[in-house]
Write a structure and sequence with these properties.
Elements (H helix, E strand, L loop, with lengths): L5 H13 L3 E3 L6 E3 L3 H30 L3 E7 L2 E8 L14 E3 L4 H7 L6 H6 L16 H14 L2 E8 L2 E9 L5 E10 H4 L5 H17 L5 E3 L5 E3 L1 H5 L2
Antiparallel strand pairs: 1-2, 3-4, 3-8, 4-5, 6-7, 7-8, 9-10
């Protein structure tokens, strides 16, 4: 699968075995994951667990107020992944389930997360294998269109997905930002387009954005805004939300 020669592959595996990242299967010639990988798995689980603990009450609050399913979403490769969820109460709901993945270029959550990154590398990876599949009539398959949608997140504070993954299905998402201001996840509210985007996207957008800002503040992020004098101050509502 890698295209490496057998000798190179064997040499790399020997190094991984020596350092505990890979092991030889008992009584077989197959290689398996080694004990050192448990450290990385536990660390990732602990980080994810802390984030879920902070976000969970906000998902519950969003669902209680809107009746829609709310999700905690992370970016992984070229996909977004649902890592926590509070099921909505409406008769017609969008419930893809925990662990579900979707192409990032069809997702409001990806737009929200990509709005605040150190560089444009993740966006470049996302559109490195063009042409992309058009899943619905409004799927953004052109990089310039998607970039414009990402910039819009900075302007209004939340991302909008309008019939981009499936016809009649839309989503609102807002970024969760770490202490250094980089987006690490998003809170999303998917649902039927007729409910999610009407009468305006702002209805759910402001709700989701408010809770995402509270989570960001809990993670140590301080939103700075310019004043008339040109100096910056900490946004008051972020401090008051802690």
């Amino acid at each position: 699968m890698t295209g490496l020669s057998p000798s190179t592959t064997h040499r790399l595996l020997a190094t991984l075995v020596e350092r505990g990242y890979v092991a030889r299967g008992v009584g077989t010639k197959q290689y398996v994951i080694g004990h050192r990988m448990i450290h990385f798995s536990c660390s990732a689980t602990q980080r994810s667990m802390r984030l879920r603990q902070i976000v969970r009450p906000h998902l519950e609050s969003i669902t209680a107020e809107s009746g829609e399913t709310s999700n905690l979403v992370v970016f992984e490769g070229k996909n977004v992944v649902y890592v926590d969820q509070v099921e909505g109460t409406k008769a017609l709901r969008m419930i893809p389930g925990l662990g579900s993945t979707f192409p990032a270029y069809t997702s409001a959550s990806a737009k929200a997360i990509l709005a605040y990154q150190v560089d444009n590398a993740p966006l470049g990876v996302l559109f490195s294998a063009e042409p992309l599949t058009k899943h619905a009539k409004h799927t953004l398959i052109e990089k310039c269109e998607f970039e414009a949608a990402v910039r819009q997140v900075v302007t209004c504070g939340y991302a909008v997905e309008h019939d981009e993954l499936a016809e009649g299905s839309s989503c609102i998402a807002a970024p969760i930002r770490s202490r250094n201001g980089v987006s690490i996840a998003a809170i999303s509210v998917p649902g039927p387009t007729a409910r999610v985007l009407h009468p305006t996207p702002e209805r759910l957008g402001l709700l989701v954005m408010h809770h995402a800002q509270q989570v960001s503040a809990a993670l140590g992020f301080r939103q700075l805004v310019p004043t008339v004098s040109g100096k910056t101050v900490v946004r008051r509502e972020v401090l008051e939300s802690q």
